[in-house]
Structures are given as C-alpha cells and as structure tokens.
From TrEMBL:
GO cellular component: 6-phosphofructokinase complex
Subunit-structure text: Homotetramer.
The protein's name: ATP-dependent 6-phosphofructokinase
Keywords for this protein: Allosteric enzyme, ATP-binding, Cytoplasm, Glycolysis, Kinase, Magnesium, Metal-binding, Nucleotide-binding, Transferase
UniProt enzyme class: transferase
Ligand binding (Mg(2+)): 103
Amino acid sequence: MKKIGVLTSGGDAPGMNAAIRAVVRSGIYRGVEVYGIYHGYKGLITGNIKKLDVADVGDIVQRGGTILYTARCEEFKTEEGRAIAIQQLKKFGIEGLVVIGGDGSFMGGVKLTQLGFPTIGIPGTIDNDIPETDFTLGFDTALNTIIDAIDKIRDTATSHERQFIVEVMGRGCGDLALWSGLADGAETIMLPEKKEDLDTIVERLNRGIERGKKHSIIVVAEGVGSAYDVAKEIKSKANMDTRVTVLGHVQRGGSPTAFDRVLASRMGSKAVELLLNGDKGKMIAIQNNKIVAHDILDLLTKKHGFDENLYTLAKELSI
Ligand SMILES: Nc1ncnc2c1ncn2[C@@H]1O[C@H](COP(=O)(O)OP(=O)(O)OP(=O)(O)O)[C@@H](O)[C@H]1O
Ligand SMILES: O=P(O)(O)OC[C@H]1O[C@](O)(CO)[C@@H](O)[C@@H]1O
Ligand SMILES: [Mg+2]
C-alpha cells in the first residue's frame, strides 16, 4: 500500500485532530502518502481530497473540532454514491482508508471494505456509545467540560437554595450523565439505561431537604427526555424552586484533554499499522488500557456496556 486516506464523519469530537495528526505522521513515518478527505463521505463523492504533509497537521494536536470538517452524507448510503466514492479513491490512487467517527460512519466503512476497499475505524464521539471500547475519543474532554459547568451551577444552586436540572448529551447512552453525575456528586442521575420514576426521585429530594439540604443537582441524559419536562414534573409533585440548564453543543468543543490526545495518538498509529498489515473492516479500541482491534460487523451487533457498578456507587454516595 502506497497511499492511504483519512476522514472524519458524524458528530465531531475533541481529539479528532490529534487522531488525524497521528494517522498522517504514522503513515509518513512508515513510508506511505496520506490524503485528507474533507467533509466526511461527502468529500469522497465530490473528490474533495488533498495530500497532507507533516506540516499540514502541525499545531492541531491541541485543537478541538476537525480540520477535515465533518458531515452526514445521505448519498453515501446509496450504492450509486458509494460507486462514485470508489472511483474517486481510484483516481487518487488511495488504497486504504481510516474513518474517524461513530457507528454510522463505521457502517459506511464496512460497505467500502465489502467493495474491496480496506477501511479501519477509530471511535470518535463524545457519547461513548460504541461497543467493545472502554472509551471513545472526546468523551473525557466532554466530561471535563460538563464538570466545569456543573461546579459553577452548584455555586449558584447553593446560594439560592435551588434544585438544578442539568441536561447533558447522550442520545442513547448515559455515560456522560453517569460519569459527570458521579464526579460532581449529583443528587440524582437520570439515564436511558436505568429508568427511575419521578416519585422516587422527588422522595429522595425531599429526604435531603428534611435533612437540611437546600439545593441539589439532577443530571439528565438527553436520551431520557427534556430537562424542562423533568423540571415541570418535579414542580407538579413538590413545591421546589427549580432551574434548568441545557449544556448543548458546548460539550462538543474545546481543547482535548491529555487523555484524549494520548488516546487519539495511540489509536491513529494503530489504525495505520493495521491497514498496512492488510487488516480491514476493523475498529481500534481501548480495553484495560491496551489498544486492540475488533471486527466492525461483529461489534455493531452488540451494545455499549452499561457500567452497573458505577451506577450503584453513584447511588451509594448520594444517599
Ligand atoms: N448504513 C450505512 N451505509 C453507508 N453509509 C452510512 C451508513 N450509516 C451511516 N453512513 C454514513 O456515515 C455518516 C455518519 O453516520 P451517522 O450520522 O450515523 O453518525 P455517526 O458516525 O454514528 O456519529 P455520531 O452518532 O457520533 O454523530 C452518514 O451520514 C453516512 O454518510
Ligand atoms: O446537532 P447534531 O450535530 O445533530 O448532534 C447532536 C447529537 O450529537 C451527539 O453529541 C453525538 O455527537 C449526541 O449526543 C447529540 O444528540
Ligand atoms: Mg452514531
């Protein structure tokens, strides 16, 4: 293999740039040319492709977002779209591809692999919703952004003796809510994986109030529903002064943490190594601090594991 490509696809995540840098530099170090494909699969179809040199990925390890831009591309889901993409890859002489993104992006990669075009995935999404990896790129940074925000919210919650409902991202996965809730000592954590009825939650809040606790933080994963609805229901069940904060896309930005930068570097290098060894249709993962690879079709039949122990611990510590 003499030329490989790299693209980012789906929602962006801090650490994607560090992964792009690692793919480009590991590729060049191993003697191959590396091409950046802009705007995800859309750029593959339109041929928005450019050779990247060592200097092109300088000064980006610390930057959030993705210098390659990202997109969701409906056309790539069609056979015709993918046929054009393959033509473009052939035109540029690119023989292997690293896809940095989420589960949808990996499905796209698998389709390319099935068409005889080797692809390796790197999990990049703040949600941490990918099976068979302990962490995805961006999760740790987003977590730290959330914690910083909740610490600030707690100051005002304490001063005004209010109950704050904070909505964090995570469409189908409650990891951001669970980890931030535990790290911030939230009184209640609401997750899509663990439905708890509001009466129980209100009872617990009331017990706290009886003990003299005048404020509390409730962290809600977006997959559970709107924080505004939760606040409305709490108000209807108990006379509490509530406020809502929806953290939104601020969670997707910012300079990646050291953890995400190191993870991105390890994953990017491993992806290139695998591709050049003739591997395909695999996703790089981290398990017990080891960088490993899993068959994408296999792993997409599974669900990201819910950490029951962490949930129990969070409950234990917020009695
Ligand atoms: N089944 C599929 N076949 C071919 N391409 C796909 C498929 N599913 C998704 N893709 C491609 O991958 C892109 C990104 O997918 P998706 O919007 O699901 O995001 P993702 O990678 O799962 O990231 P996230 O969910 O973290 O935002 C799609 O817009 C499409 O171009
Ligand atoms: O606004 P967008 O780009 O559609 O993304 C929103 C979604 O992306 C995620 O942050 C994952 O990247 C989800 O938690 C959220 O629902
Ligand atoms: Mg997804």
